Amino acid sequence: MLDSLKTGLRAALKKIVNSSAIDEALIKELSKDIQRALLQSDVNVKLVFQITKNLEERSLNETPPPGLSRKDHIVKILY
Hints:
Blueprint: H1 2-18, H2 24-40, H3 45-61, H4 70-78
Helix pairs in contact: 1-2, 2-3
């Protein structure tokens, strides 16, 4: 169960790291991938939606701190 979670989260992170531009569509896709991985690992549905909603809001609305790229900032939010 945890192995599938690790694989799913790692695949989602690879998508964002390998992308050339960060836009709303990519963040939505990342959110869906994370939801899928968490739900397959039997995480509470309400918690999954709360986590992904927080990720989407912070990724779209926050500006990264100085010295941190937008990609790194999104990865930091996810952690």
